[in-house]
From TrEMBL:
Family per similarity comment: In the N-terminal section; belongs to the NADH:flavin oxidoreductase/NADH oxidase family.
Keywords: Flavoprotein, FMN, Iron, Iron-sulfur, Metal-binding, Oxidoreductase
GO BP term, example: fatty acid beta-oxidation, unsaturated, even number, reductase/isomerase pathway
Record's protein name: 2,4-dienoyl-CoA reductase [NADPH] (2,4-dienoyl coenzyme A reductase)
Source organism: Acinetobacter baylyi (strain ATCC 33305 / BD413 / ADP1)
Length: 676
């Protein structure tokens, strides 16, 4: 018996058994939209089933064309769709997993002109205005759901999940936020839920009793005129009555202005809402959102707050999460850091989703780490994430790898990121790589600033230069004054005054501003109750408000901050699509003065002189923090015409400091090491 007995306990549903309590939640990868990508999709799900996941839920598949999220998105409405899906169900069943196909009708969230909804109210996240569904349109759509489910059964799925949350069509009917109808599909909750209930009934009639129907119910809408908890419970009970097998958790509409999954959301922040609903039904209930590590999952299950744990991104990050839990290798889990950079941000840009910490995710057939038949002697110079990625992949393939790191520890820029409030998860990536370094037998040499002569002397076949970056310095009059600090100095604990100018408003300028807003001894991660107050979330067990929203309560910032950039575009537009708005909102709420179109003139004892709109202006600040990007460090790279014994390669920030990001660094390291 491991200490994760609750996670690993089978769940008996009467007609079928799920081998453990881990659900891979639905997440759009982009592969499900094109049938020629189904072999890749099958490999992606197959690897997670092999890794021990009990129940997998596919990305959303529309029951008809009106329901498309994107033009020509994945649809299941004809027999011709079945063979492609069979590849997926077979790949999962081969490893003893179960799989549900999620049916998602986007309603007014569709990014296409034929969208429909409960009422003709445009959403803030689609440029198209929906048409109000007629009675006939509703009845036809119910039939489409039933037919879609029947086809899913024929394709070998163990069941379907009905997407009824996150603001998609059924959620639009369930809530007054969009449903302003006065017919039998609108008005009181009993009418608003009719559409969802009739869909479940029609599906159950078509598929029989021995087929899983999961319903993803919005337990907290986080939009104005959203449902109250009382209404959520009425819907949950009604769903149970008409034959839903599993009740899954949805939190927040996509248009909600409260973060629900980004890294600054405390772990398991919403589990108490699920636990409350669970008290009112007898079917198994699935908890979701920001659950990424086994101790959190086990605790939720052991305390009876939920019957299953849903994770989507954590299983992109590590397909073998369950196996590692079952074999007491939790320290080997590659933890999802909830950055969204390679998964959701890709999806919203219509690119294939993958994972920042695991570049193989959704590339299982393309990025393979095959054991080498010709082991080489490889040096990796630099122990940031690029270097660690290259070193550990190369060593796992059987190469003899030495990793040189000039400082006393590995981690590079991640050591700075992990101290930013809300970025504590970055610790986990460093932990993961450290364990991998040990397990794969990388010879780690810390405090070793190696030079080319040494590398040549030691007879390496390949040298991978991953020496990273240094912060760019500000070059204006007075910029060598002691009150001018680099972001690295600040994040390492340098003393900072009460009035601060932050120069450069990229990701790091935003991070540093958030770091400086908080008191020095603010507990990290942020306590849940404080986080809920900051974002105006009605906490359990008192949650009575519509949509679960209450006025925000902010702790006053400890510093007055000016965040500056030279560009005239709005600050933070280049931040991640799904997380940038959170950072912008945080700084705005904490009265950070954001200034654009600024020219930096001089630093004096009085502060920072800038030019704005053609006028010189003094910002009376005590400290100036420079977050003006980075420059590559690559002195060790030979010149093109230089002869060397080893082959040299360059990756990560050392290769290109502009647009440096961890996603590129880790992928470059892995891709290079996979080829050597
Ligand atoms: P960055 O995004 O390139 O931003 C650097 C900023 O410095 C720019 O906005 C630029 O704005 C300014 N700048 C550039 N040269 C300057 C100069 N000579 N003098 C004064 N200002 C100058 O770089 P970063 O903020 O250091 O972030 C590095 C990478 O880390 C990013 O690309 C990002 O991928 C990643 N990151 C992301 C996040 C996130 O998404 N939350 C957080 C942290 C890091 P102007 O030229 O307009 O002044
Ligand atoms: Fe998690 Fe980031 Fe990977 Fe997405 S890209 S799965 S959020 S670590």
């Amino acid at each position: 018996m491991t200490s994760y007995a609750h996670i690993l306990k089978p769940l008996h549903l009467g007609f079928t058994t799920i081998k453990n309590r881990v659900v891979m939640g639905s997440m759009h990868t982009g592969l499900e939209d094109r049938f020629y990508n189904y072999p890749k999709l099958a490999a992606y799900f197959g690897e997670r089933a092999k890794g021990g996941v009990g129940l997998i839920i596919t990305g959303g598949i529309s029951p008809n064309r009106q329901g498309w999220l994107l033009p020509a998105g994945g649809t299941m409405n004809s027999l011709a769709d079945i063979p492609h899906h069979r590849l997926v169900t077979h790949a999962v069943h081969k490893h003893g997993g179960k799989i549900l196909m999620q049916i998602l009708h986007a309603g007014r969230y569709g990014y296409q002109p034929f969208i429909v909804s409960a009422s003709p109210i445009k959403s803030p996240i689609s440029p198209f205005k929906p048409r109000q569904m007629s009675e006939k349109n509703i009845l036809d759509t119910i039939e489409d759901y039933a037919r879609c489910s029947e086809l899913a059964k024929k394709a070998g799925y163990d069941g379907i999940e009905i997407m009824g949350s996150e603001g998609y069509l059924l959620n639009q009917f369930l809530s007054r936020h969009v449903n302003q109808r006065e017919d039998r599909w609108g008005g009181a909750i009993e009418n608003r839920m009719r559409f969802a209930i009739e869909i479940v009934k029609a599906i159950r009639e078509k598929v029989g009793e021995k087929f899983i129907i999961s319903f993803r119910l919005s337990m907290l809408d986080l939009v104005h005129d959203g449902n109250t908890m009382q209404e959520v419970i009425i819907v949950a009970k009604a769903l149970e009555k008409v034959g839903v097998t599993l009740l899954n958790t949805g939190i927040g509409w996509h248009e909600a202005r409260v973060p629900t999954i980004v890294t600054s959301v405390p772990r398991a922040a919403f589990v108490d809402y699920t636990a409350y609903v669970k008290q009112h039904v007898t079917i198994p209930v699935i908890a979701s959102n920001r659950i990424n590590m086994p101790d959190v999952a086990e605790n939720i299950l052991a305390t009876g707050k939920a019957d299953m744990i849903q994770m989507a991104r954590p299983l992109l990050a590590d397909a073998f999460w369950v196996t590692k839990v079952a074999t007491n290798r939790v320290d080997e889990i590659n933890t999802c850091i909830a950055c969204n950079q390679a998964c959701l941000d890709h999806t919203f840009k219509n690119q294939r989703a993958t994972c920042l910490v695991n570049p193989r995710a959704a590339y299982e057939t393309e990025l393979t780490y095959i054991k080498t038949k010709k082991p080489k002697k490889i040096a990796v110079v630099g122990g940031g994430v690029a270097g660690m990625s290259a070193a550990t992949v190369a060593a796992s393939r059987g190469h003899q790898v030495t990793l040189f790191e000039a400082s006393h520890d590995v981690g590079g820029q991640f050591n700075l990121a992990k101290v930013v409030p809300g970025k504590e998860e970055f610790h986990e990536t460093i932990r993961y790589f450290k364990v991998q370094i040990e397990k794969t037998g990388v010879d780690l040499r810390l405090n070793t600033r190696v030079n080319r002569e040494q590398l040549e002397r030691e007879g390496f076949d390949e040298v991978i230069v991953a020496t990273g970056v240094i912060p760019r310095q500000l070059k204006i009059q007075g910029s060598d004054a002691p009150q001018v600090l680099s972001y690295a100095e600040v994040l390492k604990g340098a003393s900072v005054g009460h009035k601060v100018a932050v120069i450069g408003a990229g990701g790091i300028g935003f991070d540093v501003s958030e770091f400086l807003l908080r008191p020095e001894h603010q507990p990290q991660p942020q306590p849940l109750a404080q986080w809920q107050r900051e974002w105006g979330i009605d906490p359990m067990p008192d949650y009575i408000t519509e949509g679960g929203l209450v006025p925000t309560e902010l702790e006053p910032p400890v510093r007055q901050i000016y965040l500056l950039q030279r560009k005239t575009s709005p600050l933070g537009v280049g931040l991640g699509k799904t997380s940038g708005w959170v950072h912008r909102a945080q700084l705005k709420k904490h009265a950070v003065r954001m200034m654009r179109g600024v020219q930096y003139k001089a630093v004096t004892n009085e502060g920072l002189w800038i030019e704005l709109d053609g006028h010189d202006q003094l910002l009376r600040v005590d400290t100036i923090v420079v977050c003006a990007g980075q420059e590559s460090v690559k002195d060790i790279m030979p010149k093109e015409d230089e002869n060397t014994l080893a082959h040299y390669h360059i990756i990560g920030g050392a290769k290109l400091a502009a647009e440096l990001d961890a996603k590129r660094a880790i992928r470059e390291g892995a891709e290079l090491a996979a080829k050597l």
